[in-house]
Structure formats: C-alpha cells, structure tokens
Amino acid sequence: MIFELNGKNVSFEAIPSLTLLDLLRNEFGLTSVKKGCDQGECGACTVLLDGMPVNSCLILSPQVEGKRVTTIDGLSENPLMIELRDAFMENGAVQCGFCTPGMLLSSYSLLRDNRNPTEEEVKMAIEGNICRCTGYVKIIEAVLDAAVRIGPD
Ligand code: FES
Ligand code: FES
User: Fold this and answer.
1) What secondary structure letter does DSSP report for 73?
2) pTM tops 0.85
3) pLDDT number for residue 132
4) Which of 63, 122, 125, 143 has the fewest C-beta atoms under 10 angstroms from its C-beta?
5) What is the pLDDT of residue 128?
6) d(C-alpha 24, C-alpha 56), whole Å
7) In this structure, what CATH number is given to the domain that contains residue 93?
8) What is the whole-number distance in angstroms between the Cα of residue 101 and the centre of ligand 2?
C-alpha cells in the first residue's frame, strides 16, 4: 500500500490489524508520535490525516492508502509550526513533553484555519489532547501568543 508521509510517497505491507500509530513508530521510526493510552483517549498519538488531526491509534493502517499523513517531523520548517514551537517554549507550555507533539499538531490545525482564535476556540481545538503536567493554562497562552506572532493571513 502507498500513502504520502510527510510529503513523500511511501509504501508498506498491509497488515489489517496494524494501527497507523504502530506503523509510524515501528515501520517508519517516527517516535515523535507518542503511544499513550492506545485507546483514543489521550491525543498523544495525534497526526494530521489529509490535514485534519486524528488519533492515529484509532486508525487502521490500510485506511491510509492514498492519503496524506503528516507528523510533527514533516512540519519542522513550516513557519506557523516554528512560531508555535517557539511560543510553547517561551510560555512554559512544555514540561515532560509527552503531550507536546500532539498539542502542537492540534494547535497548528487550528491556526492554519483561524489566525485569530478566541480562548474558547483554542480550548476546543486541544480538548482531545491530555496534558498531565501544565494545567493547560500555559498551553492556551502559547497558542494565543503564536496567533499574535504569526498575524493575519
Ligand atoms: S495513544 Fe492514541 S489517543 Fe492515546
Ligand atoms: S507536558 Fe507533560 S503531559 Fe503535557
């Protein structure tokens, strides 16, 4: 099966029961995609599937055939992601870091479509991403800060 992973076409042998999460981590070495609950509860495994955030532990690998999968690794040079990353660091929104790739991808998806979100919209965008460390306040502040830095489209 073939799909687009971080901008490149890749192929893999289809195993019906293999999740996208395990495919990305085990076959492609993308350990930035975190394995938390493995049950769709924590958001640590968030990736973008055709641009939309999904829990990769809930997607079976054959479902991605012909689709576009983006992990945080594929956005390392993206200006919006760079602003988000810097804002997370400067606002103290990263502690253990386990939730951070998923948080950044959910936040990226929000700011890509909405450059001037309200606090409520930020909360909604990251509601599927659990953070055990920060209490969320600094994360929300970081996303709002990134929105200011990047400015309108
Ligand atoms: S590991 Fe997928 S939602 Fe927790
Ligand atoms: S920074 Fe530790 S889980 Fe969010």
Assistant:
1) G
2) yes
3) 96
4) 63
5) 97
6) 9
7) 1.10.150.120
8) 10
